[in-house]
Amino acid sequence: MSRMISYEKKNTPIHKLSGFTKLVFFLLWCLASALTFDTRILIAMIIIGAIVYIISGTKWKQVSSVFIAIMFFMVINLVCIFFFAPFQGCEIYGSRTDIAHLFAGYTLTKEQLFYEFNVFIKYFTVIPSVFIFLVTTDPSELAASLNGIGVPYMIAYSVEIALRYIPDVQDEYHKIKNAQEARGIEMSSKGNLLSRIKNTSAIIFPLLFTTMERIDVVSNAMELRGFGKKKKRTWYSKRSLQTADYLVLAFIICFFAATMIITFWDGNRFYNPFI
Amino acid sequence: MEKKFGIKEVVAMGIGTALFVVLTNVQIPLVIVPNTALQPRMAIMAFFAAVFGPVVGGVIGLLGHALGDAIFYGSVWWSWVFPEAVVGIAVGMFAKQFAVREGGFGTTKNIVFFNVIQVVANAVAWIVVAPVLDILVYSEPANKVFAQGAFAFLGNVIIIGVLGTILLSVYSGISGKSSDLKVEE
What we know:
The structure holds two protein chains of two kinds. Chain A has helices at residues 13-16, 19-35, 39-55, 60-84, 88-93, 110-136, 139-148, 153-182, 193-224, 243-264, and strands spanning 98-103, 106-109.
C-alpha cells in the first residue's frame, strides 16, 4: 500500500520525545481543536502545526497522496454544507452581508464564507498533528504510553497487536483478492448493489476466517508465554521523561488552558469579526 | 460479563482492529453524500462484537475507526468515531444470547434478535450521536448532518443486516461443538 502513513525512524527533536508526551499532546490538541471555533486560535494552531511539521522532518512525499484525498473530501463537504444550509453562517454570526445572488434561494454571503473558512481550517488543525504523531511515534512505544496515561495494559497491548498486524492482514487481503479475481469474480464498480455486496463477501469470508484462525494461533502463543498472569506489566520500549518532555507537556497544558479561556471568554465559541 | 477478560479477547481486539483498518478502503459507494458508503468493515465489527462481547466491539469501533481515519485519511473525525463504538458496545452486550461460538446463532430467533439490536444500535449511533456530535464540534448545519446520519444509518443497517448476519450464521455453523457428529443408530 502506498497510500498509508507509517512510522519512520529518524533523529529529530520530535522523534526523541517520549511517546507519552506525544500522545498527551495529540489528545489535548484534538480536544482544543474540537472545542474552539475561534478563528485566531485556529490560525495560531495551524502555524504551530506547520512549525512542528517542519521540525519533525516529515517528507511531503510520505503524506502527499493522503493529503490530496483529504482535500478532495473537504471540498465536497464544504460544498455540501453550502447546499444544505446557505445561511448557516448568518445564523451563527447574527448578521448578513450579501456578496452575490447565485440562484433560487442561494445567496453567497460573507458570513457563510467566513463560517466555511473556519470549518476548513478547523479540519486543518488536526491533520498535521495526526501526520506527525503517526510518522514519529514508534508503534511499540505507543502501547507503553497508552498504558502510561491509564489505559489498562490489556487494551494497550491490543493496540500494539493491531498496529503489528495491519500489514499482515493487508497482505492477506491482497492475496485473497487476487485469487478471487483470477477465478473470475468481478471487483470493479460494475454490477448492481447486491452483486457487489456478494462479490465483496467473496473476499471477506476467507479473510475473516483466516483472521479467526490467526487469533487462535496468536492467543495460544501468548498464553504459552504467560501473558496476562500479573496485574501489571513493564514495557521494553518505554522511555522515561526528559527535560524536553516536561517542557512540551507544560506547553500543551498551558496552551490548552489558554485556548479555552480565549474561546469562552465572551460566552460564545465563535470569533465574530462582523460586529 | 461473567467470563474473565481473557487473552483471546485481547488478541481479538488487536487483530479485529487490524482487519477493520484494512477494510477501511473497501467501500461500496451508496449515494454521493460525503463519507457515506456501504462499509463492509461495519459488518466485521458487528461480527466481532457478537462473538467476543461489548469491550471487544467497542474497542474495535473506537480504535479501528480512529486508526483507519488517521492512517488512510490523515485526520480523525472524532464525531464519527464514537458512534461506531456505540454500535460495537450495543451489539456486544448481547453476545451471550447469540452464543455464536457455541453454534447457537443459526436459529431464526437469534437472527431476528441480532437484527433488531443492530437496527436500534445504528439508529442511536447515526441518527442521534453522530449528528449531535457534528453539531457540537463543527457547528455544521443540522439538516446536512442529519441527512448524512440517515444515509450512514441506512448503509450500516444494510451491510450489517446482510453481510453481518451471513458471516455470523456461517461461522456459528462451523464452530459449533462437533455438531456434525451423530450417534449411530
